[in-house]
């Protein structure tokens, strides 16, 4: 699998105490799709068993943690003082090493399901990149691993009554942010070293979509695909040139697309006012609405959680519909459907074919990937959580509303 979508991913085996572990450097991990190369992480735990450590996190935030070597980074918001914070923790002990105020600004309007720190940061192993909203201005910042700010820029404006949650994604030497909004509607690529704008694309249909793009090689070329701007669109992340687009799915979207290796197809979903799964062949040019659609499905379409692709199947989980679904990748046929509760978190998978589903109440179900539903384990965190799980080096990291947990097998 091509991993050029993250700068310096060739340095994944960093010279740290965790040099053999794959890092989790951004939203949905090293490939941007929720998959881990781990083969044997724990499948069973609780707040009293297999707990490596537990750390109280100040403030509130729904962003997921990211991990590079022996460091964990995550964002939070101190609402009383109107501060947006970047935190660094020691991965071995959970100790908070430092926290820096990235932004001190009035709190924006938002939906009750959102937070003031919902954007997951990203790292290339040298700097950590964050996005927040300063009233109506997007603020993208870079910090080194000691907590020193390297740069901070405001490349455009944003407005949505639902608040802000536009996660930075890395591609080679660029920090890319898709800022689909009812103010300025744009996508921008900033230089990782100093934050200057490399390219900026104006999007022509102002909406309020939130799903970060998927950047990876598909159909023989590097593509950036996102659902928003009242379309599903593919761009060249090097230049910002539009490659293809699909129209007519719906207005707003929250999910990140996923790619299925076996079929060579990409699965996208709109969220509002219609929830529609669209499976596309990504080898087209221009308007592919009627030429490259493989199948569509409305019954299994998610609202908030992103889907995942494992083997011959796509898996989705609903926000309020309470069902997780397994779909045949070639046809979109629903092979099984299971009530698992309400979800904000997106599922993650491991190399041994296990998929981890974490619902809003902190219940995590581990299933074996396949055409039939097979429950491996069910675990109760006992705390509400919207953040997506992270799997690194045989350990699972879960962020609840109040704490960050590290679970691992007993040594």
SS summary, helix count: 0
Average pLDDT metric:
91
Helix content: under 10%
Radius of gyration, in angstroms, nearest whole number? 19 Å
Strand content: 35-45%
Q: Which fold name is given in CATH as the topology? A: Methylamine Dehydrogenase, Chain H
How would you write the strand order of the largest sheet? 14-15-16-17-21
Tally the structural domains: 1
- Quick one: biggest sheet? 5 strands, mixed
Structure description:
With 411 residues, the protein is mainly beta. The protein has a single domain (19-408), classed as YVTN repeat-like/Quinoprotein amine dehydrogenase (Methylamine Dehydrogenase, Chain H, 7 Propeller). The protein contains no helices and 33 strands. It has strands at 51-56, 66-68, 71-78, 83-90, 96-104, 122-123, 127-134, 137-144, 149-157, 169-171, 174-179, 186-191, 197-202, 214-218, 221-228, 231-235, 242-247, 258-260, 265-270, 276-280, 286-287, 293-297, 308-310, 313-317, 323-328, 334-339, 348-349, 354-358, 363-368, 375-380, 390-392, 395-399, 403-408. A hairpin with a 4-residue loop joins β28 and β29 (363-368). The protein starts with 50 loop residues before the first strand and ends with a strand. The model is unreliable at 1-18 (pLDDT under 50).
What features would you highlight for this structure?
single chain, 411 residues, mainly beta, Methylamine Dehydrogenase, Chain H, 33 strands, disordered N terminus
